[in-house]
Amino acid sequence: MKWLVGIAIVLAALGAFFWWAALDAGAPPEANGIVDIAAYRELVANDAPETLPTAVNVEFVGESNAPSFAVESGAFDGQRTLSYNSFQIVAPGGDTIIDGAVDRATLDQMSQGKGSFNEQTYDDVLAAMTRAQRVMITHEHLDHVMAIARHPEPAAIAPRLELTSAQLNGLPVHAPNGQLAPEIANIATVDLTRPQRLAPGVVAVAMPGHSPGTVLIYARTTTREYLFIGDIAWVMGSVEHLRGRPRFVTWLMPGVDPGRPEVLRQLRALHDVAEANPELVLLPAHDDAHLRDLVAAGALSEGFTRPAATAPIPE
Ligand SMILES: [Zn+2]
Ligand SMILES: [Zn+2]
């Protein structure tokens, strides 16, 4: 009998550990005020309609597969395709590029050579950055920054970068030899502690949790509203089902979710905002199926457009 009790205790302990490592990732019941969409709207309420962005485009640079339960805790439905992307907000006063995706070496390293990489779209992202009015990132992780940290013409993009100090601090480790080009290393950073209007229709606010430099970007175009949520959720399922990443992923991937409780609160806040605003388009950085659905539905266009003229280098 004694050994039966012993086995029962071991099994219970294993079960509890499994639950804690793989399943315990629920969002809290309430997170009011964390995603203050009314404040973002207010900041752009007086922007003249003819100055607002007219479209949001995406370049799919690379992709890899991951088990669903590692991407969204509690999801046991096979493999998910994660894509590595860059976005372009097209506006009359100049474009905003969000995120610098991966280069081939980074994708090979992340996917152990099993991912696929599109040389042409990566080149298009590099070129678009040299013509944009501003270049931003949702956060400083390796799969969002390579077209910046390893850009072949750092002097051409440096004056266009709008990064927070937490984001800039995270970039050198991704640069060749761990050294950012001096033009980029010495940019003036932006303070997004409170929501800031950065351009007509464009607002950003610091949202640390997934990384110290994570920001949330809101864009209002002439036809829609968008929230670029970066990696707060890797897939829309995390927002819809209120389930974050499992703990074991944060052990395997150091630097992911140092502020895990904040991420879970943000998921609750995004869930509630999405539910109250069904027309709002949420853009998780890596959810390939969701992003391609948005392309099919006309809320996103695939491929960057070339502006009529290169934006002048900002003062
Ligand atoms: Zn990330
Ligand atoms: Zn990412």
Q: What would the keywords be for this entry?
A:
19% strand, binds zinc ion, Metallo-beta-lactamase, Chain A, single chain, 11 strands, alpha/beta, 35% helix, six-stranded mixed beta sheet, five-stranded mixed beta sheet, 315 residues, 13 helices
Write up this protein.
The protein has 315 residues and is α/β, with parallel strands linked by helices. Helix content is 35%, strand content 19%. It has one domain (34-302): Metallo-beta-lactamase, Chain A (4-Layer Sandwich), CATH 3.60.15.10. The protein has 13 helices and 11 strands. The strands form 2 sheets. Strands 1, 2, 3, 4, 5 and 11 form a 6-stranded mixed sheet that branches. A hairpin with an 8-residue loop joins strand 7 (202-206) and strand 8. The mean pLDDT is 95.
Outline of the structure:
With 315 residues, the chain is an alpha/beta fold. The chain contains 13 helices and eleven strands. The chain has one domain: Ribonuclease Z/Hydroxyacylglutathione hydrolase-like (Metallo-beta-lactamase, Chain A, 4-Layer Sandwich).
Helix and strand run: HHEHEEHEHEHHHHEEEEHHHEHE
Tell me the distance between the termini.
79 Å
The total beta strand count reads 11
Ions, cofactors and other bound molecules? zinc ion
Overall geometric form:
globular
